Amino acid sequence: MIKLEDVTKVYDGGTVACSNISLNVAKGEFLFLVGASGSGKSTLIRMLLREEEVTTGTIWVAGKDITAMPSWKVPYLRRTVGTVFQDYKLLPNKTVAQNIAFALEVLGRPKAVIHRQVEQVIDLVGLTGKSERLPRQLSGGEQQRVSIARAFVNRPPILLCDEPTGNLDPATSVGIMRLLDRINRTGTTIVMATHDHAIVDAMRRRVVGLEAGQVVRDQASGRYEQEESVE
Amino acid sequence: MNRIGFLLEESFVNMRRNPLVVSGAVLAVFVSLFLAFGALSIQELVRTNTQQWQDGTHVIVFLKDARDGITLDSQVALRSEIDGWDLVESTEYVDKLGAFEEFKKLFPNSPVADNIDPDVLPASIRIRLTDSTRYREVVFNLIDQPAVLEVVAPGESIENVAQLSRVLNWLGFGLALIQGIAAVVLISNTIRMAIYARREEVSIMRLVGASNWFIRIPFLIEGMIEGITGAGLAVFGVWIASRVVGDVDAAISLFDFTISSGFFVKWSILFLAFGAVAGVGGSALGLRKFLKV
Ligand SMILES: Nc1ncnc2c1ncn2[C@@H]1O[C@H](COP(=O)(O)OP(=O)(O)OP(=O)(O)O)[C@@H](O)[C@H]1O
Ligand SMILES: [Mg+2]
User: Fold this and answer.
1) Do B136 and B159 touch, CB atoms closer than 8 A?
2) Percentage of residues in chain A having pLDDT higher than 90
3) What total of structural domains would you count in chain A?
4) Could you give the C-alpha distances from B58 to A40, B50, B153, B288, in angstroms and in order?
5) Hey, which of A9, A21, A39 would you mutate to test ligand 1's pocket, going by the most ligand atoms within 8 Å of its Cβ?
6) Which of A15, A205, B107, B117 has the lowest tally of Cβ within 10 angstroms?
7) How high is the ipTM of this complex?
8) CA–CA separation, A124 vs A182, rounded Å?
């Protein structure tokens, strides 16, 4: 589903954010990206979205080489990849329903279809009855649910999450993770960058550790910290 | 289909968010197109009116009468002399009574007409020339004639009016051009400010997979609406002005102030189209920096 081959990213200032990363993510996998601040997790996710271009190397997403993709096709890439960020990235002047609907408006879906799918996904993320609120009238956890609903409403095969629980308290985080777990069970591939020990340790999914832009660890059902023991 | 509706709605919502800036852009388009349309209409009025005059009398000779020792016979003699001149196509004699009738027609409700003695108005000979531009030669020949009280050549005032209108036209079009450029710049600025204020939103839209065109179109629609609204106001303004001036026309009737509806409709459509194009162009200009293709 996602494949990186020898990907290196050097920013304009000379910072090497990712160096020689090769990685394969299968369909339906749930992968945690962990590592210290500045280790290159966000850079990696932005490259998967073509928000940043690779310096060298190749990335395939859903079977397409996105490093060679012309820029006018990038919107189509982003419609197959849902995104969830730490700061929610909701449109402040649109209601919950309008924010979620936007992902479908972009696809040109008929109004009736949009209405039905938005209602469904609002129920799915547990925001029933709050569809007419503006983002500022919601708690952080609720805003993150809206963001997940928007990312998931057109059933993309891939969901990329960059510290989705970064601004939330532990209890709310657990709720968000339950939601992401449910979405993963529908067959959606999820890549999630996080600093949250508790979540990684509780979920026991594949863990890829980055250090100074390099992959230093890749474990099938790993924990946040590298385990000293050998399997 | 739904997409078009959605994008239209987006642009209306955006405009409602900063009505002041939007009105500024509309006003600029209005002023520039009003000036241009106004100048054009004045030119058209001058053209149709001078045409009327040029088809009619070119020189008027007011005649002395019995009080100055000039008999009807010498008046008739002068007319036949004039008829003999090369430049003269035809003449018409208007006597004192005819002049009085004309006066009453020109000032229908004026109390002056009731109190005036028909005898004080001079009789006149109206002359049509074969070549109206050579009226000066005829005037020159006439001023020394003993029966002549005064010679008037509307040709002179036609020329003055025509010249004045040319100057006014250049001035009007110059102003309109400057205003037009200002309008386009203002629209592009409006859109740029709107984009700048919404750059966060725009980046979110792109993240969700909105294409550049999906983001651009509401802004282009916004520019177009501003352009068309401004042009519509300008057309409306010219229409109002022509109505006001048309009322004056009924009272004075020296100069025909009515614009033909064919002229008005044709140019209204052209100005509306121009407003739309200027609006879209201005907003495209504003978008250029923030959303590269
Ligand atoms: N736009 C940019 N221009 C230049 N350097 C950048 C840019 N974005 C990130 N960097 C640098 O690249 C490196 C990796 O940053 P990145 O944001 O990927 O780290 P991260 O692992 O997501 O960190 P965190 O856990 O704090 O979110 C850092 O040294 C950072 O300073
Ligand atoms: Mg980060």
Assistant:
1) no
2) 92
3) 1
4) 91, 11, 6, 59
5) A39
6) B117
7) 0.86
8) 10
Residue ranges in B133-260 assigned as alpha helix (H)? 135-142, 154-197, 199-207, 212-252
A104 CA to centre of ligand 1 in angstroms = 31
Instruction: Return the number of other C-beta atoms located less than 10 Å from residue A77's C-beta.
Output: 18
Q: Do A106 and B212 touch (CB under 8 A)?
A: no
B23-48 pLDDT, tens digit per residue, is: 888 988 898 888 888 888 887 777 77
Domain extent at residue A134: 90-155
Domains and CATH numbers, chain B: 2-53+159-288 (no CATH), 58-153 (3.30.70.3040)
| Phi, psi values for residue A59, rounded to 5° | -125, 130
Q: How far is the CA of A213 from the centre of ligand 2 (A)?
A: 12
Flag whether residue B2 sits within 8 Å of chain A, measured between CB atoms: yes
Q: Which amino acid is at A196?
A: D
**CB-CB neighbors (< 8 A) of B3 in chain A:** 105, 108
Q: Please report, as a single letter, which amino acid is at residue B204.
A: I
- Smallest Cβ–Cβ distance between A106 and the set B5, B201, B209 belongs to B209
What is the rounded CA–CA span in Å between residue A39 and residue A162?
13
Is the per-residue pLDDT at A110 higher than 70? Answer: yes
Grade residue B290 by pLDDT with cuts at 50, 70 and 90. Answer: low
Task: Work out whether strand A56-61 and strand A64-65 pair parallel, antiparallel, or are unpaired.
Answer: antiparallel
Give the sign of the dihedral formed by CA A32, CA A35, CA A38, CA A39.
negative
Under the banding of pLDDT at 50, 70 and 90, the label for residue B50 is: low
The answer for residues whose C-beta is within 8 angstroms of residue B271's C-beta and 6 or more apart is B33, B36, B37, B231, B234, B235
B62 burial class (0-12, 13-18, 19+ CB within 10 angstroms)?
A: middle
Instruction: Express the helix, strand and coil content of chain B in percent, nearest 5 each.
Output: 75, 10, 15
Residue A94 domain flag: yes
